[in-house]
Amino acid sequence: MSTSLKIVVIGAGICGLSSAIWLQRSGHQVTLIDREGPGAGASYGNAGLMAQWAFIPVNTPGLIKDSIKYLTDPSSPLFMQWGQVPRLAPWLWQFVKRANAKDARYTAQALIDIIADGGDQHRALTRATQAEEMITSSDFVYAYASRKDFDKDNFGWGIRREAGFVPEMIEGAAVQEFDPMLGPSIQCLARLKTQGHILDPGGYMHALADILRAEGGQVAQAEAKDFTLHDGKISSVETDQGGFPCDHAVLTTGIWSKALMKKLGFKVMLETERGHHLHLKNPSQIPRCPMILGKGKFGVTPMSTGLRCAGTVELGTHERGASRAPLELIRKQITKDFPNLEYDVAEEWVGYRPSTPDSLPLIGEIGKTGVYAGFGHQHIGLTAGPKTGRLIADLISGRKPNIDLSPFDANRFDRH
């Protein structure tokens, strides 16, 4: 590349920070803007898992049957803000239509390309920096009440095996031998070796911002409001702090990207999967490795700041705060599965996962505007962020990406 371009990246979560760093390393002049600063949203409150195995979409065969069961069971990990159903109906219809083996396999194969090497991508992004010290190697286990419950997930595990993620099965008394913190309610573990996790997601985002500054990029606190286009091409990002002239812009603002896409004249099917967490301070026990509790469908991750229990799904709006039911489910499941665990306080948090009905993010140029999308990662934003940023840097710099980006076409919803 011979031309240095002026780039504005909007949104300082993991996808925005990664895009900004890789663009700066490609020789461009990068300014990263965010209304709150680095890592203030879902990139702060996630489970911290290097979820290289998490390419199975939620809308798999059996979704309708399972959803009916979940939505009528107060102890299930799926929640709905019922007043939002009329607004969500078009998204839900497209989501349910894809709950079949063919579409689920298509989604999984596409996601494998952007997350299966997530650990390597994080280390390439952070090599020889303080941020690298926040990445730790660890095994991962999926904890089930019984082998029968594991077998109910056979569709997803079958695809994982095909992709090389073959679990070691641990059952019966060997479960508590593997991790004495687990109570008798857990009788089956599916263990994947050498996965990894982030010790402090919020601190990690700030460390990435430090990398960007150290390498010559700029970080500014400003809220993007609109775009100025000349002959259909971006020339400035308009914010509450004034305009930021640019040759290209990158849109990585999660659920808030929907409104900014509309400013460009493009539609996108993007809704909120609300995720909650309890962050336990000074826990009396720490699990041997990160895990997901099969019953509650949430991650349990040891971090430098405590024990984070994060997950569940609540379909609704990003304009409301935390809901009690998901938090109480997490609390109840912690008590059941870790009967001897004590802690000082459980800090509560809610965040907003940007979710598409086909469970695939948007990566690439929006029309011919010179604005590039990097959002809609649903549950896998932390894992996929560094590779998403590298792909966007390749596209803007004129380098051909080494994977098929057609499943992530940023314009696919505007054609319907």
Keywords:
6-stranded mixed beta sheet; about 25% strand; alpha/beta; FAD/NAD(P)-binding domain; D-Amino Acid Oxidase, Chain A, domain 2; 2 domains; globular; 9-stranded mixed beta sheet; about 30% helix
The parts where pLDDT drops under 50 for at least 5 residues are none
User: How large is the radius of gyration?
Assistant: 21 Å
Oligomer: single chain
CATH topology of the largest domain: D-Amino Acid Oxidase, Chain A, domain 2
Q: In percent, how much strand structure appears in the residues?
A: 25-35%
Helical stretch tally? 13
Principal-axes geometry comes out as: globular
Query: How many beta strands in the DSSP annotation?
Result: 20
User: Averaged pLDDT, please?
Assistant: 94
Characterise this structure.
The protein is α/β, with parallel strands linked by helices. It has helices at residues 14-25, 42-45, 63-71, 85-97, 101-115, 118-126, 147-152, 154-162, 173-178, 201-214, 257-263, 324-337, 381-397; strands spanning 6-10, 29-34, 78-80, 135-136, 140-144, 168-171, 188-192, 197-198, 218-221, 224-230, 233-239, 242-245, 248-251, 271-281, 291-293, 298-303, 306-316, 345-355, 362-365, 371-375. Strands 3, 5, 6, 7, 14, 15, 16, 17 and 18 form a 9-stranded mixed β-sheet that branches. A 6-stranded mixed β-sheet has the order 9-2-1-13-20-19, covered by helices on one side. A hairpin with a 4-residue loop joins β15 and β16. The longest helix has 17 residues, at 381-397. The protein is globular. GO terms for molecular function: oxidoreductase activity. This is D-amino acid dehydrogenase small subunit. InterPro entries: FAD-dep_OxRdtase, FAD/NAD-bd_sf.
